């Protein structure tokens, strides 16, 4: 599973484009802009988005900073000249007639434009539910609308400003026979009033009125169109899609997907027979890997396949999958094997996961070559048939790049990345889907299709180029990796897996870097929420050299959260459960398993005693996350607790999402504190 940081560097990877957009809109000169901003003061603390003048230029703070002089070499500052305007704002007027009005229910990506309260705004990065305002760094005001009012309507002449159209739907994924309410009360007219509201529901039906209801009789995708006309005859339109889902039965039980890491057999001594099968619905073996020729192999060791490490899958059974010849009797581990457990348990799905953070090296070669896709898909079939498994999980990190590179401190290999990877991923998924479906249909002993799933990044910037509409039709579900949001790759300490955004966070993108936002983003791409699993980590991330806050920065108290820290590499994180700095390291240090933090730990793992007087454990009821802090050591650890797990599962149980994925079951305490709390809350 991923150990890839979502925020990969302390530098801002989402540089604003407001200066270029402002220039295209014909904005004023630098001198005019400078008159609106204070001069930089070394003793003043600035937050991300604040602007100052210095040495004849306008500069914008990328994050909280104090005492760092604005300069081209200073990462904390970005030069915005030529600029015109305030905060994220530009002067002048512009034609908004072809731009839709802002809709709080719509997800916007960087570069998208909307009209709002008579002005044109551009999104700096992905956002949903944050209304345009100069105080919101995610939006840049490009100017006032001078002709047309946005929404794609025609003008009414005589200087009349066209209205803006928008609406919300009470259900995004209704089932046939469910009444859906469409509300256009958010539509407006800046210089008059709206005289009429006309609706087309995409199935031939129409209606009029500000708020209407409609019932779809059949499953399908429908485009709903609203046209509003103002009292001077100008009009605007707004459309959105409603996906009507087929009725489905079921007990309503949420998925609980647990990864079992084949290396958990070593120091942790956690084998597949120890998994609490009464508290999971699916278990996933981590990992196998794709090779250059498209073949599927067990993880490598000493230059070859690790048949010893992988014995808990093959269990000494050659089957049709292993092509290297007979295996040795000593590789048989009996009923402890993953494959043996699969034969014993009909109520649990046993899935083989391919890839992961350190073993996605050759996915690109395979996905882009039709012959290699065929080999890969056939190996997937032979794997599930040889060991009696229920399906395949694809964990390519990541199509299009953003995964392992040898230049990064978190890897010692280069995952191949090529143009076209994201569309090639769709082709690879389809090849596996077709092969698994054919195999299931030809197996007289199998009564249901094989499962095909994927694990995907929670960062919209990494996955925005994927063909989500096609993938959602090919995959049974996807697990969104909603962890590793913060770590020593972040500017400040923070929550590594928050459910919600805490506005006190000084780190970049707090409104987007949280689980609820990530799930909403996927839903906005067309995924049925029942297909989406929210990931929870059974581990934490730490920071060392944590410094007390200055004034009211962050939480305004020395509790370890949202604070500065010092050092680089290991010196910035502390050791963690399994320090991996040095030659061959594939993880950042400072990763602490719950097994050590809230259990009795293991010998030689440098466990901390969170129960001692040196430590205090806190809970953030806004972000729904926990952390522990030792001020005398300056060590802060963002980690799960039974309370944070319970609160997350309470939220998930009342949602329409399909379930949860946990990384990894071997990281739990010996008595299963976290998985017991998770299951009893989610599926009680």
Automatic annotation (TrEMBL):
CDD domains: ChiC_BD, PKD. It comes from the Archaea. InterPro entries: CBM5/12 (IPR003610), CBM_sf_5/12 (IPR036573), Chitinase_II/V-like_cat (IPR011583), Chitinase_insertion_sf (IPR029070), GH (IPR017853), Glyco_hydro18_cat (IPR001223), Glyco_hydro_18_chit_AS (IPR001579), Glycosyl_Hydrlase_18 (IPR050314). Gene3D superfamilies: 3.10.50.10, Carbohydrate-binding module superfamily 5/12, Glycosidases, Immunoglobulins. The keyword Hydrolase applies. The keyword Methyltransferase does not apply. Belongs to the glycosyl hydrolase 18 family. Chitinase class II subfamily. This is Glycoside hydrolase family protein. It comes from Halococcus salifodinae DSM 8989.
């Amino acid at each position: 599973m991923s150990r890839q940081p979502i925020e990969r560097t302390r530098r801002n990877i989402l540089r604003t484009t407001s200066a270029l957009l402002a220039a295209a809109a014909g904005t004023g000169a630098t001198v005019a802009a400078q008159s609106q901003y204070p001069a930089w003061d070394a003793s003043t603390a600035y937050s991300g988005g604040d602007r100052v003048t210095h040495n004849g230029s306008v500069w914008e703070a990328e994050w909280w900073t104090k005492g760092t002089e604005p300069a081209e070499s200073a990462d904390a500052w970005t030069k915005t000249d030529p600029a015109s305007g305030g905060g994220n704002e530009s002067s002048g007027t512009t034609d908004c007639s072809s731009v839709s009005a802002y809709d709080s229910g719509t997800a916007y990506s960087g570069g998208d434009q909307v009209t709002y309260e008579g002005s044109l705004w551009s999104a700096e990065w992905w956002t949903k539910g944050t209304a345009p305002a100069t105080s919101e760094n995610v939006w840049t005001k490009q100017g006032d609308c001078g002709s047309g009012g946005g929404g794609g309507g025609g003008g009414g002449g005589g200087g009349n400003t066209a209205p803006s159209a928008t609406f919300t739907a009470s259900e995004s994924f209704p089932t046939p026979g469910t009444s859906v309410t469409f509300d256009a009360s958010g539509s407006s007219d800046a210089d008059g009033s709206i005289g009429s509201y006309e609706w087309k529901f995409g199935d031939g039906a129409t209606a009029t009125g500000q708020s209407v209801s409609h019932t779809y009789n059949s499953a399908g995708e429908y485009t709903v169109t609203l046209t509003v006309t103002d009292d001077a005859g100008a009009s605007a339109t707004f459309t959105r899609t409603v996906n009507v889902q087929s009725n489905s039965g079921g007990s309503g039980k949420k998925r609980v997907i647990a990864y079992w890491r084949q290396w958990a057999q070593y120091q942790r001594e956690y084998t597949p027979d120890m998994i609490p099968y009464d508290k999971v619905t699916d278990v996933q073996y981590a990992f196998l890997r794709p090779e250059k020729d498209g073949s599927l192999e067990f993880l490598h060791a000493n230059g070859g396949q690790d048949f010893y490490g992988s014995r808990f899958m093959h269990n000494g059974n050659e089957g049709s999958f292993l092509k290297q010849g007979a295996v040795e009797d000593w590789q048989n581990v009996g009923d402890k094997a993953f494959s043996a457990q699969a034969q014993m348990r009909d109520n649990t799905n046993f899935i083989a996961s391919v890839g992961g953070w350190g073993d996605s090296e050759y996915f690109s070669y395979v996905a882009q070559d039709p012959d290699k896709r065929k080999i890969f898909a056939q190996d997937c079939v032979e794997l599930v048939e040889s060991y009696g498994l229920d399906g395949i999980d694809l964990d390519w990190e990541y199509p299009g790049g953003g995964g392992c590179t040898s230049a990064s401190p978190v890897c010692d290999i280069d995952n191949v990345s090529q143009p076209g990877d994201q569309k090639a991923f769709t082709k690879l998924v389809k090849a596996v889907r077709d092969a698994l479906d054919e195999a299931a249909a030809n197996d007289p002993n199998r009564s249901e299709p094989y499962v095909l799933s994927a694990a995907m990044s929670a960062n919209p910037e990494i996955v925005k180029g994927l063909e989500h509409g096609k993938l959602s039709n090919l995959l049974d579900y996807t697990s969104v990796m909603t962890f590793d949001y913060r770590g020593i790759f972040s500017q400040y300490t923070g929550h590594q897996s928050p459910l919600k955004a805490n506005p006190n966070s000084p780190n970049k993108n707090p409104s987007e870097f949280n689980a609820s936002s990530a799930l909403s983003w996927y839903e906005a791409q067309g995924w049925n929420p029942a297909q989406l699993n929210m990931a929870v980590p059974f581990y934490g991330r730490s920071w060392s050299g944590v410094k007390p806050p200055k004034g009211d920065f962050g939480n305004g108290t020395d509790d370890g959260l949202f604070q500065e820290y010092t050092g680089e590499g290991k010196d910035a994180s502390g050791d963690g459960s399994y320090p991996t700095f040095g030659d061959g390291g594939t993880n950042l240090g400072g990763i602490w398993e719950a097994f050590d933090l809230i259990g009795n730990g293991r010998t030689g793992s440098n466990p901390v005693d969170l129960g001692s007087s040196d430590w205090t454990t806190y809970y953030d009821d806004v972000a729904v996350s926990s952390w522990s802090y030792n001020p005398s050591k300056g060590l802060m650890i963002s980690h799960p607790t039974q309370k944070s797990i319970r609160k997350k599962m309470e939220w998930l149980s009342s949602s329409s999402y399909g379930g949860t994925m946990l990384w990894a079951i071997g990281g739990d305490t010996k008595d299963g504190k976290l998985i017991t709390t998770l299951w009893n809350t989610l599926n009680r």
